[in-house]
Design a protein that fits this description.
single chain, globular
């Protein structure tokens, strides 16, 4: 088996001694509350934008349209650029903030970056809950977006670096689990606040985002920074002490030496973003960018942002629409919990490929039902068909929640080498937020013009991303982060040609891969078709 490349680094395949210590579990739970905030923001916007009093105050044109269904067809009553900007401005701000977050993550550490995210969240919540006009509302959303940019940059890195290799996937998915719990809480709160007399329920919905914001801020004060970050910033003794605490053993020297070596290599890189474009970093960059684009092109955020609006459009009453959104939110949480259990047992590729089949089937069925039953001016979806639509949406959401949802964040956070990890995570977050912004800004207009064809559009993307996974995404289950190059990229049938062979040991041939590593490194069409 080829070595790691330097004398101080243990041979590839050696798993470092590590116990699952309480400090790791507590730190990861605290940090993952950044996902709770992100999820709450995703879930709350769809609920408040379907509340009549909120629309009357900030979007009177949409309010009049929803009360005069004869003026527009079912599919077009919520088509309004200002309404879409309320949802999407958060993601545009997050996209900008993530470049600053990359610098703070690398220069000051993961923990201070999470603190900054918490402060942005708190400021945004105050402005949103107290909003008197559209400008105040949008500024609040922009501040929340800055918090999302900083949190999504720091939290996945922190989780990957704190976790022992054998449970890294499960702990990293805590972030995505908290996103889904945040969405569910937002849907439940919207369901309750929509019934408040006096029309101020939307303020309560937006204001209660302060709870996860405070949890993240307090949690960031309580956790220790990751040993990778401390070593990267030159605090070797502190990094060693933290590593000893979080691993629960004194036998940390091999892992510590690997961190120091990775840090030494990283320090030689003066321009991490420029280094990202080098040939040997192309596989990680292409896969990270593709995962973010594909994650949004599943159509999941379109459904999660606008679930109540979508169900309203399909002829559900306002209460039924919010209720259906709660059901899909609950399925989202349960399926993400399934992912935590299965990701380190079944592996990443199995989950992605299975989910592709499930999502494609459910979206095609939804498109067929809507194409037949929901016309522009049809008053109601038959009860049986309405239930079938909700079941198919839940089938789609569950598949996404145990695959593309968590793995879209997990795989990039564990594949970039230390010298480009912060820059790589920044690109990952910014591409994700860019495409989230595009989908959020365009979905209601697309729904108006494509009608039921919107689901066929997304199902076409699901087919493309499943083919990409089959051939180009390698298995990273149970591979230590610092050994990805030797054990994954240099063994992949396609990506190995991008690896500069400047370490000990040449890349093995395709036939050696399963025998040596036991990893599925992508379906090789040249040798397997």
């Amino acid at each position: 088996m080829p070595g790691g490349g330097f004398s101080s680094v243990p041979p590839a395949g050696v798993e470092f001694e590590a116990k699952i210590t309480p400090i790791v579990i507590i730190s990861c739970i605290m940090a993952a509350t950044g996902g709770l905030m992100f999820g709450y923001d995703v879930g709350v916007s769809g609920g408040v934008t379907s509340m009549p009093e909120f629309l009357r105050k900030f979007f009177p044109v949409v309010y009049r349209r929803t009360n005069d269904p004869g003026a527009n067809g079912n599919y077009c009553k919520y088509d309004n650029q200002g309404l879409q900007l309320f949802t999407s401005s958060l993601y545009l701000a997050g996209l900008t903030a993530t470049f600053f977050a990359s610098y703070t993550t690398r220069r000051f550490g993961r923990r201070p970056t999470m603190l900054i995210a918490g402060f942005f969240f708190i400021l945004g919540v105050v402005l949103n809950a107290a909003a008197q006009d559209l400008a105040m509302l949008i500024i609040g959303r922009i501040l929340l977006g800055c918090g999302v940019g900083f949190a999504n940059q720091a939290v996945p890195l922190f989780l990957s670096e704190m976790a022992p290799t054998r449970i890294r996937g499960g702990l990293n998915i805590l972030f995505q689990l908290n996103v889904t719990i945040g969405i569910l809480f937002a849907n439940l709160i919207n369901y309750g606040t929509a019934k408040i007399e006096g029309g101020w329920g939307w303020r309560l919905s937006l204001g209660l985002a302060g709870i996860p914001a405070l949890l993240l801020t307090v949690g960031a004060f309580l956790v220790v920074d990751s040993p990778n970050s401390l070593v990267e910033r030159g605090h070797l003794e502190e990094g060693k002490a933290v590593l000893r605490r979080i691993r629960g053993t004194d036998n940390i020297e091999p892992e510590f030496l690997e961190l120091v070596e990775a840090s030494r290599v990283a320090k030689q890189v003066k321009h991490p973003f420029r280094n990202l474009l080098k040939r040997r970093n192309r596989p990680q960059l292409v896969i990270a960018v593709a995962l973010q684009i594909f994650q949004q092109c599943t159509g999941i955020n379109a459904i999660m942002f606008y679930a109540p609006v979508l169900f309203n459009t399909l002829g559900f009453g306002n209460d039924a629409a919010l209720y259906s959104a709660v059901i899909t939110g609950a399925v989202n949480v349960i399926a993400t919990a399934v992912s935590i259990y299965s990701v380190d047992k079944l592996g990443r590729r199995v989950l992605l490929l299975e989910a592709g089949v499930q999502m494609f089937f459910s979206q095609v069925v939804i498109a067929i039902i809507l194409g037949i039953k929901v016309k522009d001016h049809s008053d109601d979806l038959h009860k049986g068909f309405a239930i079938l639509v909700v079941v198919m949406v839940c089938t789609f959401v569950s598949a996404f929640a145990w695959s593309w949802g968590p793995l879209g964040w997990l795989i990039p956070s564990e594949t970039f080498p230390l010298e480009t990890r912060s820059a790589g995570q920044s690109v990952t977050v910014s591409v994700n937020l860019l495409f989230t912004f595009v989908i959020a800004q365009a979905f209601l207009s697309m729904l108006c013009h494509f009608k039921y064809g919107i689901f066929l559009f997304f199902s076409g993307w699901v087919l493309i991303m499943s083919i990409f996974t089959l051939f180009l995404i390698p298995e990273t289950k149970n591979v230590p982060i610092e050994e990805m190059t030797e054990r994954v990229w240099k063994q992949h049938w396609f990506w190995k040609r991008f690896m500069d062979d400047d370490h000990e040991g040449a890349a093995v041939t395709d036939g050696d891969i399963p025998k040596k590593y036991g990893h599925a490194n992508g379906f090789n069409p040249t040798s397997q078709l």
